[in-house]
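Table 4 source record.
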Amino acid sequence: MGERGGALRGQLDQLLREVAKFGAVGGVGVLVNLAVFNLVRATTEIPVVRASIIATAVAIGCNYLGFRYFTYRDREKTGRTREMSLFLLFSVIGLVIENGILYTATYGFDWDSPLQSNFFKFFGIGVATLFRFWSYRTWVFPGQPEAVPVSPVVASGTGGGGGRDSGEPGGVRPVEEPVGVVLPGHQGVRSASAARPSADRLTPRR
């Protein structure tokens, strides 16, 4: 129970750190988004929703750099082309969510004053951010797979299976018997130790 509780706390701490980093990058993106949105509205005659789409596109570029090199810099790099393709796909979906809310408020309810436009622009960013957080961490920047622990018994080769250099169960090498030597004039095989003449046999009798 203690190990399980510690693992859950570790996962929760990791999620909180990820949310904090995502929020830091997302906060910068929100500032960029709103700044470009109001700048385009103030200096051009571009309609509200189109100005919002331009601002969202600029913020998407800033967010990618922040997510790749700060929030998810330790995540698996599955290929830059695939990563950017998925990022753009989910970013476009978030763009539709964000600006769809602004479009509904502007052309559905005629809420198009600067204050109302900024409110629904910010509200749309908030809703789209929830989707982006889920999709980015799940598909664009997936987490590292957990390593499978290896049993020390299996790793050392002393478990139920045989060793690499042994044909016996448990990896135990059998003790080899000494090589036998056939002595002249004798039947059978004697061991190497028995083949050596002892000192008393070499001593001449008197």
